[in-house]
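Quick illustration for those who missed Monday's session on complexes.
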Amino acid sequence: MKDVLNIDILIKTFDDLTVGVGIFQITDLNDIKSIRYVFMNKVILYEMRKNQEEVFGKRIIDVAPEAFEHEAGLQVIETYRKVAKEGGSINLGLVEYSNHMVAGTYECSVHHIKDNYVYVMLRNVTELEQAKNELEQKNKELNEFAYIASHDLKAPLYNIANLIRVLERKYKGKLDEQADTILNFMSEATGRMKNLINDLLDYSSIGNEKEMITVDCQELVEIIQQDLESKIKETNTVIEVDALPKIQGFETGLRSLFQNLISNAIKFSKPEVTPKIKISAIEQNGWTFVIEDNGIGIADKHKDKIFSIFKRLHSKEEYEGTGIGLAHCKKIIDLHKGELWVDSKPGSGSTFYFTIPNHLS
Ligand code: ADP
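Prediction with adenosine-5'-diphosphate bound:
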């Protein structure tokens, strides 16, 4: 193998990587000043604004003494020594450099090679982090906008609804048939608009819960079943609930998540078929919850669309609703850093899955 694998090939490979890779030798495992650059690939040399001759074989303390004067630099250098001495790997996550590297945010991990050698992997994620922060800020503004808009729309709408009621009381059945039809339309339309605005208000309030707490999902689902009692009785729905865990999460959010999924499972049932719902949970890198129904199902081409806000597959005459419920669920799951998806065959029911990763209490 030695005949075919030479050092030039290795160096070319490391230089072509888009991630920074650097090898260090720690001559004295108890002295960070003894650490030497063995090899730095092009990405790291570029971030240091140095060339090979200035760096290879030299000690960090001689090439970049300023690294020893900053907390982030010292932390990384100390990690080289620790990993060389103790073995294994340490993932430092995001490190803010402002010294011998281009100032910015780096993803950084250090790994043992053998004896006194370690390698570091570095990725400059400054722009990515900035974009992430800007996106978060924009999302926050959008949320506030949705909240203010829906909140301020509520008062005039309630006034209109009241005035329509006055008109209905005074004139319904007393004018011609067309007037009655118009009054009915107006009253229905304002009713729908009220629902939309309330849903939008709820949607923009998700994320206001500051702290995760221990939530007993078994208890939560029992309460939701009580809340939905009249709907369950009316439709003869049978709900089977397996043992559900206690998890760390946002309680109000989780309650509305289960409520939306269970309500949908009841609502989108097949005509003449008793709705049957099974709720269970599997432990696997956190928890995966499963809500299975025997309803109308969802065609493949619609499976992603339904999680968008105001997306509906049916007219309000077929199934009532505003199309915000699943967008709501998606937002709640995003806050828990989980996933939400559906598996379904039209006519054979749907199974909604969501994951809640383990959160520290
Ligand atoms: P809404 O229930 O107000 O229509 P949702 O956002 O909760 O809004 O759902 C969006 C669409 O996804 C629904 O209109 C329906 O077409 C489809 N859907 C949701 N849940 C189910 C389900 N359990 N079975 C079949 N279709 C469903």
